[in-house]
Amino acid sequence: MSGAAHPAGTNARSREGDALQADRLQALLALRTESNELFFARAAEPLARVCHLVAERFWSGGRLIAIGRSPQARSDARHVAVEFVHPVIVGKRALPALALTGEAEASSEQVALMAGPRDIVIAFGDDAATVAAVEAATRRGCLTIAFERIGAEWELEPPVADPLVRQELSETAYHVLWELVHVFFEHRGLLAGSPMEPARDLGASSFLYPFLVEEPQGGERDLERVIEDVRCSILLKAQEISALRANTLGEGSRALIAAAATLRERLHAGGTLLALGNGGSATDAMDAVADLRTPPRDWRAHPAIDLTEDAAILTAIGNDIGMQAIFRRQVIAYGREGDMLLAFSTSASSANVIEALAEARARGLATIAMVGYDGGAIAAEGLADHVILTRSQHVPRIQEAQASAWHALRELLEDAP
Description:
Layout: H1 2-59, E1 64-68, H2 71-85, E2 97-100, H3 108-114, E3 120-124, H4 128-139, E4 143-146, E5 154-155, H5 163-185, H6 223-251, H7 253-268, E6 273-276, H8 280-293, E7 304-306, H9 311-320, H10 328-334, E8 340-345, H11 351-362, E9 366-371, H12 376-380, E10 386-389, H13 395-414
Parallel strand pairs: 1-2, 1-3, 3-4, 4-5, 6-7, 6-8, 8-9, 9-10
Helix pairs in contact: 1-5, 1-6, 2-5, 2-8, 3-4, 5-6, 5-13, 6-7, 6-13, 7-13, 8-13, 10-11
């Protein structure tokens, strides 16, 4: 009799715990929805102007230099660089951007060495070294942008104290900067010093900017009109991510709660989290590892390994075997039964991600996959134990919603069920 009663009581407590965590997810979503609306209501107009100024700097031969010293700030700096250098949308220009993320490289001396007067410096974090680096960039004549009050020329500070939400809002802002800076390349007459006559040059990316089609004659010279159009586009993108975030956390609620329970159990038993992704998703893996090893709040630290971190290992495997093996080989090397693998993939079809998930499962690792589009084979074939799906085909918005999903998972990890 007592044996029968015990599981029933356990199940009841489990259901109660799940209900509490579902309520917690709703509270986390509400905070993000409100903060997103407040931030972009304030930031849309200055961000539109920053897009124009950044385009002028690029047009004149400048580069973008992203700086960050903390583990979380380094992931954002890397994310900015990869977005500009390797555009994922057809028709976008590859633009020169680099990240200074080492302990020495984020110093004012390194910024003074690397940055020129036509460059753009975008800073993450508010530590003394980053403040000094921004000051050095200003002295060099750089355009400076920051998401903290650190003395940059343009400061887009999120209106919320929570460090996880601040990071998500900053990520959307720099994604929007990357997307909409191209508007001004397509209005070449608005770029100071441009030798060309005013002209529209939308090309293959015209579908992204319906408001630029069939303007009145001379519209290319009307800077304020285009700034207003870009401001409205920013607000639409902010609404889009808010809705997608709600869909991801809502539809994925049960998967997130289950993943948090498994992650908590394994980490508390001595397991390690392995994280991976490609491109921008690699920086999401970097951020996830940072949030575990160096928590942004007074949380317990946990062991985690970033499988995208070591360039020597990645290039050795890629060169000798092939890119499809870069993560699987590391799972073989590091993965132990009782560990866990976290995979980020916007497409849900990357061969190296799928191979790593298969290897992890074979070795007794629990697996979490955060995927976009329709979930691909990872969702359809159940290639991960816990799949959190973001239903979109727009890569920046997918990554922003996945950042929220990971941060929500990190929060749930701390909440006892």
